[in-house]
Amino acid sequence: MNKYILGIESSCDDTSASVLRGNVILSNIIANQSVHEAYGGVVPELASRAHQQNIIPVIDHAIRKANVSKNDIHAIAFTRGPGLLGSLLVGTSFAKSFALSQNIPLIEVDHLEAHILAHFIDDANNSKAPDFPFLCLTVSGGHTQIVKVSSYTDMQIIGQTIDDAAGEAFDKIAKIMGLPYPGGPVIDKLAKEGNPDAFQFPMPDISDLNYSFSGLKTSVLYFLRDQLKKDKDFIEKNKADLASAVQQTIIKILMKKLKLAAKQTGINEIAIAGGVSANSGLRQAITDAAEELNWNTYIPKFQYTTDNAAMIAMAGYFKYRDKKFASQKIAPYSRSGSRKR
Ligand code: KG4
Ligand code: ZN
Q1: Ligand 1 neighbours by CB, cut-off 6 Å
Q2: Residue 9 Cα, ligand 2 centroid: separation in angstroms?
Q3: 103 φ, ψ to 5°?
Q4: What domains are there in the chain, each with its CATH number?
Q5: Is 1's pLDDT higher than 80?
């Protein structure tokens, strides 16, 4: 099906637009918002204002880069949630107006499902996509889930965090260490120079396939508070070792439950998705587990790990095929639980 789908992502602090022809990627433009750096985290009001400034130039760029005109677009897909409401509203409003003015279908996309479906984007030198059913460890700044994916539209969460998300743990611990936001990539880089066994942090004791990261954050906070009393330069002197030990602990926590999920379900098709799947240590741990446990593993390309509109257009394409269109009355949702069908 040679249909052109325009995707829009505006759930947090990246404004992104992408054009796909079927599942083939033609463009994927992302405007990051540097305005939040000074605050050590995303400021919702500033995010929606920046989305308003960015959205038209970003979409214009995506359409031009794809070498199509706006009249060639067959459908527009947008992130409906979860995310920051003010940010989601910018993308949702634009998508509605575009669908109305061009007289094309409007398609709502769940951000987390889109992270998973990013595995099906065809970008020339593509590796193989996972076979159904597969397990996907979705790890981002706001979510940590193990999802059993039975089809493009049938996804079941079989485990999730009961408090902080894995990305949040990276970011909050980085903040405690005085590192810039977002902390995940900074810790990843520092960890490469450090010794992961230099410090030991406790593993949570959580039932089933669920996760918890708030205990790790607290134990790092108390550990550093005590060490700083003895040596005010403790963090500076041990930055790389601390980053390495923290990263190793987060990865151990993630892998323990993922291995359990694979064992319990008997599924050995294993994918990772979301911003934290960019982490080099996690990517290595997945590769090692593939060897050890005979898994077929699927690691997304870097450009499809963090927030992007290509994954939204990809999810939109599957809904387009099923003629699952949204009405003009649709409203965004901030949390998965508040989603109205
Ligand atoms: O998926 P994403 O772009 O946005 C959400 O939907 O939340 O994920 C952002 C998260 C942030 O917490 C960021 O620190 C983390 O992904 N992240 C990383 C890395 N790159 C991004 N965490 C660890 N290592 C990385 N290389
Ligand atoms: Zn995301």
Answers
A1: 12, 140-142, 167, 170-171, 182-185, 188, 274-276, 278-279, 306-307
A2: 9
A3: 55, 50
A4: 4-122+304-338 (3.30.420.40), 134-300 (3.30.420.40)
A5: no
